[in-house]
Task: structure prediction
Amino acid sequence: MSDTPLASQIWCGPLPDLEAGGLERPRIGIGGMSIEASTYSPHISGVEAFAVRRGDDLLGYYPFFTGRRDDILGAADWVPLVHARSLPGGAVDPEFYQWVKRELITAVDEAVAADGPFDGFYFDIHGAMSVIGMTDAEGDLATALREALGPDTLMTTSMDLHGNVSRALLDATDLITCYRMAPHEDAMNTKERAVYNLLTRLRADTGSDPEARRPYKAWRQVPVLLPGEKTSTRLEPARSIYAEVPKTEAMDGVLDAAIWVGYAWADEPRNQCAVVVTGDDQEVIAQQAERLARLYWDARKDFVFVADALPLDKALDAALADDAPRPYFISDSGDNPTAGGTGDVSWTLGELLQRPEFSGTDRTVIHASIFDPAAVAAAVAAGVGGTVEVQVGGHADSGPRGPVPMTAEVFSITEGDPTAGTQVVLRSGAVHEIVTERRKPFHKINDFTSLGLDPLHADIVVVKIGYLEPQLYEAAAGWKLGLTPGGVDQDLLRLPHTRLQPGVYPFEDVATDPDLTPVVTRR
Result:
């Protein structure tokens, strides 16, 4: 095992000392809206999809405000306003988006009217929020927030690396950064870094120039749009490219550096890779932004899937081979709920039930999962050990295959999951199908064992996911990435992208290199 700590274990150091002209206890607001939303999924993400946090509930969401970083907690008067967060899904209901936007802007207006302008604001977003009828939801929300805050409030923004950075979003915020790991083991680390950078600037002495607190930003979009499953930082070339980010950050005159992969399952002009380097030395940040952009562009044809990518039948053939190790994992990637899939595509279940190798009980095959509240209710009514005849899945997204008829034994019933609600396992031959009341990703071993299933001793585990999250990655003795249909189909060229900017690879393979000279701006 490497001695190098994971990024998730590397948190920001102590805050710098308060300088003579710095703000000893600035007043900082918190708010935002976060979802990764596929425009190719028929699912609509409305009020039921989001957890809305306010006040202490919102402050408690961040571990660096709950005792781990007393210096950060005590360095400002924090004003948590409103934040809406959802699991990835389909595009957002525009009425709900407007409701959240009004809630946030009204909260800012009332706070400013009562106590004056904020010194800083932490804007927590994903960066891949698609809203029905819009093409740049985060840019719209950031612009409205900037207008409410006024020109002098310093705004910091944290994002997922699968987000998108439009010019509108760039111009509305002052500091902007994103994750450096995929899978996202450094998610909270990144949020802390965004807050740490904000406090660093607010505690600094600006001398006679109050604008000196506001750093310069060097921004360049890179016309490449790839799925996350081809850009994992576990593998080259992303591993080496992202290793350059902290090296850039450590340079004199640089505050932060970030590379966004972009979000591949939305059809909007902003969707592509982006690079932002922030700092005080305009020449250095411009050089570094162009260097990082060039690294990514030059490597565009070298990115590969994190595992052998095969059609599902071929992946199952590999898993059934006599010498296949156990447990053998297959990613049911086309309906990955953590990338924006509906979570109810039934295509893979239908394929599993049709395989003659799975008709008996000499094997254990687990599929996670399908959300279907009606099938769950039928299983609960039958009870453990009972038999049900149900039509499973294919209700929200019926495109690849409609509801799948299934006659099955109710293997287990588990109630009270905060995300999934009631969960049942339906067994037909070797196939153990997990059906949930609400959408849920399955990322941890306990997600299975809590249902009476043991993935470590199963023969085949098929899970709706792209790259395997850490616990599953460690558990998998064998692994294939199944190229399955759904709203987050890994074969991007099968999806009708029509609104991307010209020249975006792999949708266009241009013969000449793009101009990667960055825009350098200070809002």
Remarks:
- The two ends are 44 Å apart (CA to CA).
